C-alpha cells in the first residue's frame, strides 16, 4: 500500500468489522460510517468518509476505494456561517482518492466548528475547537549510536515552551521530502497534563504507515529534508488519538483489537474523528 493510505480508515476497517469468535463466524457485524475530518488554523476543512467491512474480509486498495462514501451531504458550520463541502476526486495525497472540501470556511483559532454528515436517512454530527498553536523554539538532530559520527541514522528533536493550559494536548506529524506526499502521524501522543511547565525538549519518532521492527523506522537519515507539524488539540480529539493509537498497537493480535475501546467524537452510526488543530510547521535538513 502507498504510504499515504489513511491510518484511520485502514485500521478501523479491521477493528470495527466485528469481534470475532473462536469459530471465526462473523455474527456481530454492524455497518458504520468511518469519519476522518479535520480543520486547522488558516486552512479549509477536509472530510473523508468510508464504510467499514466484515472483520475477515480481504482489505486491499480496490476494496478501500469501493468503500469510499461519495454521495453524502457534508456540512461544516462555525455557528454563524455554514458551507456544504464539495466532493473531489483529484486528491492524490489521500487514499481512497475522494474527499469533501470547503471553499469558503477557513479555520480560526478559538472557534468551534460543527460537522454534519447526511446520507440516505443517516445523520452523523460532531463538534471540535481549534486551540492556539504553540511555536517550536528549536528543531535539531542528535546521534543514535555510539558511533553516531559515522552512522547515517539521526534522531530528530524539538523544543517548545509549554504553558499549562486546561484541555490542550499536542500531536506530531512528519513529512519527508521525496518520500511522503502528506504529513504522517508520528508515534508521539503528548498528554500535556504530564508535562512540566516551561521549556520541553523531546525526540520526534518518525511517522510510519505501519509498525516495523527495523530501527530505521524510528529515525531519520542524513540529507533528508523533514517537515514537522506540531499541533495543539482539545481534550476530545486527544482522547480519540490516544485510544486509536492503543488499539492500533493492540490490533497486531486480532483477538485483542476492539473498536469498542475507540473513543470516537462523532455520533453513531459513525466512528472516527472530527478534529480541530492549532498547527505550527518547521523544516530541517538532517545532518
Overview of the structural elements:
This protein is mainly beta and 287 residues long. The protein folds into 2 domains: 7-130 and 234-276, no CATH class; 136-231, no CATH class. Helix content is 11%, strand content 39%. The strands form 3 sheets. The chain has an 8-stranded mixed β-sheet, covered by helices on one side. It has a 4-stranded antiparallel β-sheet with strand order 4-3-7-8, with no helix packed on it.
Gist of the model:
The chain has 287 residues and is mainly beta.
Features:
disordered N terminus; about 40% strand; about 290 residues; mainly beta; single chain; 16 strands; 2 domains
Radius of gyration: 19 Å
**Coarse shape:** globular
Class derived from helix and strand content: mainly beta
- Order of helices and strands, N to C? HEEHEEEEEEEEEEEEEHE
User: How many helical stretches?
Assistant: 3
Instruction: Provide the domain count.
Output: 2
Give the neighbour order of strands across the main sheet: 5-6-2-1-16-15-11-12
Average pLDDT, rounded to a whole number, is: 81
Low-confidence stretches: 1-5, 17-24, 252-257
- Cα separation of the termini: 30 Å
Please report the total strand number as a whole number: 16
Q: Provide the β-strand percentage band.
A: 35-45%
Largest sheet: 8 strands, mixed
* Fraction of helical residues: 10-25%
Amino acid at each position: 500500500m502507498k504510504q499515504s493510505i489513511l491510518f484511520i480508515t485502514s485500521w478501523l476497517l479491521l477493528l470495527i468489522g466485528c469481534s470475532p469468535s473462536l469459530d471465526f463466524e462473523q455474527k456481530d457485524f454492524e455497518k458504520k460510517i468511518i469519519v476522518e475530518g479535520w480543520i486547522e488554523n488558516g486552512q479549509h476543512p477536509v472530510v473523508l468518509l468510508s464504510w467499514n467491512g466484515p472483520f475477515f474480509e480481504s482489505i486491499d486498495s480496490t476494496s478501500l476505494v469501493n468503500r469510499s462514501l461519495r454521495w453524502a451531504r457534508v456540512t461544516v458550520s462555525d455557528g454563524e456561517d455554514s458551507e456544504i463541502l464539495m466532493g473531489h476526486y483529484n486528491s492524490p495525497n489521500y487514499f481512497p482518492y475522494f474527499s469533501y472540501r470547503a471553499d469558503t470556511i477557513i479555520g480560526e483559532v478559538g472557534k468551534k466548528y460543527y460537522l454534519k454528515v447526511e446520507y440516505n436517512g443517516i445523520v452523523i454530527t460532531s463538534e471540535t475547537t481549534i486551540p492556539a498553536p504553540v511555536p517550536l523554539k528549536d528543531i535539531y538532530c542528535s546521534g543514535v549510536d555510539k558511533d553516531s559520527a559515522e552512522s547515517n541514522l539521526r534522531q530528530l528533536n524539538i523544543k517548545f515552551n509549554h504553558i499549562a493550559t486546561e484541555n490542550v494536548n499536542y500531536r506530531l506529524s512528519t513529512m519527508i521530502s521525496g518520500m511522503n506526499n502528506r504529513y504522517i502521524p508520528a508515534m508521539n501522543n503528548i498528554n500535556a497534563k504530564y508535562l512540566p511547565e516551561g521549556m520541553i525538549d523531546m525526540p520526534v519518532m518518525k511517522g510510519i504507515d505501519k509498525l516495523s521492527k527495523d530501527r530505521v523506522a524510528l529515525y531519520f537519515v542524513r540529507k533528508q529534508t523533514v517537515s514537522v507539524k506540531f499541533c495543539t488539540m482539545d481534550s476530545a480529539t486527544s482522547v480519540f488519538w490516544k485510544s486509536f493509537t492503543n488499539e492500533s498497537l493492540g490490533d497486531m493480535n486480532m483477538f485483542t483489537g476492539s473498536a469498542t475501546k475507540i473513543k470516537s467524537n462523532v455520533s453513531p452510526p459513525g466512528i472516527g474523528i472530527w478534529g480541530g488543530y492549532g498547527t505550527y510547521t518547521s523544516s530541517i535538513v538532517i545532518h
